[in-house]
Amino acid sequence: MNNQKNSFFGKIDWLTISLWLALCLIGWFNIHAAVYDPENPGLFNMATNYGKQSMYIASALIIGITILIIDAKFFSSASPVIYAVVVLLLIAVLVIGRNVGGNQAWIPIGSFRLQPSEFGKLATCLLLANYLSSQSNKNPNMHTLAIGAGIVLFPVFLVMLQPDTGSALAFFSLIFVFYREGYVNNSLLIFGGLCIVLFVMALLVNAWILIGILAVLAGFFMWTFRKKRKHLINIGIIFAASAVFILSVDLVYNHVLQSHQRNRIDIILGKMDDPRGQGYNLNQSKIAIGSGQFWGKGYLQGTQTKYNFVPEQSTDFIFCTVGEEWGFVGSIFLIGIYLTLLLRIIHIAERQRSAFARIYAYGVASILFFHFFINIGMTIGIVPVIGIPLPFISYGGSSLWSFTILLFIMLKFDSNRKGVV
Amino acid sequence: MNSFFARKFVIQGIIISIALLIIARLFYLQIIDDSYIHSANSNVMRKVVVYPARGVILDRTGQVLVQNEPVYDLMVTPREAKDIDTALLCQLIEIDKEGFIKRMDKARAHSPYRASIFEKQLSSRTYAHLQEYLYRFRGFYVQNRTVRSYPDSIAAQFLGYVNEVTEKDIERSNGFYRPGDYIGRSGVERSYEDLLRGKRGVKNLMVDALNRPKGVFMEGRYDTLAVSGEGLVSSLDKELQILGEKLMKNKLGSIVAIEPSTGEVLAYVSSPSYNPNDMVGRETGNNYMKLLNDESKPLFNRPIQASYPPGSVFKVVAALTAQQAGVIDENTTFFCPHGYSYGGGRGFMRCTHYHGATSLIRSIQVSCNTYYGYTYAKMIDSRGLSGPKAYDLWYEAISKFGIGHRLGIDLPGENAGLLYKSDHFTKSYRNDKWRSAFNISLSIGQGEMGVTPLQMANIMAIVANRGFYYRPHLIKAIGDKKIVKKEFTEKISAGVDAKYYTPVIEGLSRAVNMGEGTAFANRIAGLEMCGKTGTAQNPHGKDHAVFFAFAPRDNPKIAIAVFVENAGYGGVWAGPIASMMVEKYIKDTITMPKHIQDRIYNANFMPAPKVDPKKTELKKATDSTKSKKDTTKSVNRIAAITTRETIVHHSAVNRSHE
After folding, report:
1. Per-block mean pLDDT, blocks of 10 residues, chain A (421 long)
2. CATH numbers and ranges of domains, chain B
3. Cβ separation of A342 and B15 shorter than 8 Å?
4. Chain A residues close to B46, C-beta within 8 Å
5. How far is B112 from chain A, CA to nearest CA, in Å?
6. Nearest CA in chain B to A289
7. Cα B420 to the chain's mean position, in Å?
8. Residue extents of the structural domains in chain A
């Protein structure tokens, strides 16, 4: 018995758990700093965000331990049911949800508000792992890819109806899972990368000028490869496709995106300068982080966040507090923790025997990576303002619990990696 | 393991690159670009200027002459003032919508980013009311400062006034002053501006996004304390000043009283005066214009700016300088046949009486013109020198009594009076062969000579001191350490030996205390006052009454000069005023019969109010051409007023004397 218990906890990846705990505590302290009120300084005051967060962290710990106790098989076999429940919740939120800040994303349960889209990522990850692992003895094929993509895109569709673009975008990070499993090849990844570059270029430069530049480039390559017919055709196709893509970006950008989304992108691209209006959040966020300088202003000393210049300072813009109070040093430390966690998850993923566990772990890494990049990137102005939380740090029960569940299920699989799932 | 294992490196690579990208960006934001720290500070920091309290001015007994009173200025930073309840604000500070827009435009024109005054000097009551709602007006805050307050409303010209700096002041001060600051404009406020104003402090407050104050920035590391202005102890005796102003009510003129042993000015009355409190507060502008347009010129600082022919007081100087020059001594006697004939009988300078054989002492006592005609003739004609050369010596001796020179009192705008050098007469005579007959009126201080009331009082101080004076000054001590300016402790000699004063003082004493003296009516029981009446000639109207004195004879405490313009004979009006002042100061009581006191208090020598709207033009016209034939009575009166301000009477008649 004793022996068995030791071996059970011995297999748990304590490094990941330490990193998780470190992030939770960093989050808690920074939420405290962000909403600090000198007249009400207690860390456990339940009327405040940080007081509540302490409760969320404690309950997340209980949830985590519970997950570690549950049989790993449960998560793989129950994944269709979990997926179905979450989909139902996502539909329900459209009907009975509460509208906060333009997004119909929350279901009120007592004083607590449940955000189903946070759990959507978890459910999608599980079902995707379940499905793809069932196909892992075959070579990757279009049929499997289509069904896998369907599993991902269905909740995306529902989340878009809220509409919560930020959360919906997070699902697309699962492209790394498809890539790792061979459903997306290198050239497609490069193609995707190029698409993003072209997309940004298309927004910055007039479409026809950009097409002209590409035409000159195409002409140059055609002249270089004038002896090889096959290359000439390829270059022609690539050029034509790029031109169509650029024009469609123009079309989508101007007619499909909503004006506030366009503004956010414009601000990032420097096409629009509006520090008092649309750019206010970003500007104040950059001021907070930039004013932290090397060592930061110190715990509870950040004036930008303490005095509410930064909006959403305990949720989406929590990184501002880190940047302002802990400076470059503190920011690097936090980024280091994330980087270690992400690389550790990939390491864990690769040591799994079962395809399910591996695919699931990659899903976890993808989602955490996306949140990490987009959230911090947004606060420092390298990606548009997209309202998604920083995992384990941002204030909020739904987000903390869903990320914790996501991570601990992976840890459960990992502790069980010698066994068969 | 499957065949796509190697792809983990690509994924790891992407994650690491993104992390590096974020770090690079952070490096730029937090370390390379330091504009963010400034932005953060300007976000959160509100510089609040802490205005120092202006120095308080006390009288010589420690009673307050000027103190400070708190007022509240409503400030606005236009760029931050958004989405406010304009109607409520207008209602609270009692302005209308147009007024609001006007003030806002003005503030915006000054700077959209810096705070400027929206409404000046709110009363404590308005402020208390406004304060409750202030948090609702983003971009607005209240700045306290203090304004001057004069508990007794006295000594307006002595103290001067402060008002807001102009663009020019700001330029001149190299940025010391900022718009909205106050600066001393006249009187002590101006001459001691550097000491009184103190040093402005800055308090760096932190505000939140809603512009609510949240505490002190960086524990006040960048704050500077306001340093209050130095307090000043003036030489003025408040009780004496109040009495002087009361006595001079409804009269034009001056009283200057000096403590001979120190040069401290004890009373400084310029009449008509004004209430110094009128130069404070929201009505300042209107009140100032009223004073400026008042034809009796309340802003005119008569004791140091009005210049009159000295008249009799000059006989004292003449007697002293002539003894020192050796042309007369205390036994010298001249025969007065009711006047002095000169220029070989071509000219005759009348004397008031037939004095017969007149000694030096008696000449002072009875103010004999003849005696000084002879004395002047001796000074100019009998020293073996040419007229101009002898005059130069005379000029030098006279100058030492302060005539024709600024005494250097600590007030702006002091007039030097008038005393010509010899070349002036050489020029008008067209050669240097002139003699005493040419300007004989100078012998009795008439004609081309002018002294200010301050100079006259100072001459009395010299006589009281038997030969020296200290520069008259208004401020006897500066700050807590009671520093006295060095230039006010310097003993200045008038160039006449002490022994020569004895007969002169005897003459002055007899003038007051003996039946035959010119000032007998003004003697004070139980106090030996030495003094003399005088009459300053006024070619434009009734003569000015003058009285000058010091008392007591031994160990004098006070030297005084009183001018009452257009009041006629000095003994009647100026004398009683002087003796009341002297008695009040020395004995702290007035024994003069009540009916004489009342006569003085009730006398009115103010020019009749004039209704001509073109007065300013007329004034200018009469100013430039004094000889111009006056057409109307009112013009005549204006001429009298105007010329009094400038150096007057040097074109005066040679042949009509006291």
Report:
1. 49 92 94 77 73 91 92 89 93 82 74 82 93 84 89 91 84 89 79 76 75 85 80 82 82 75 69 60 86 86 79 86 93 96 95 91 95 92 84 91 94 79 46
2. 46-127+143-234 (3.90.1310.10), 302-602 (3.40.710.10)
3. yes
4. none
5. 15
6. B30
7. 26
8. 2-184+267-415, 192-256
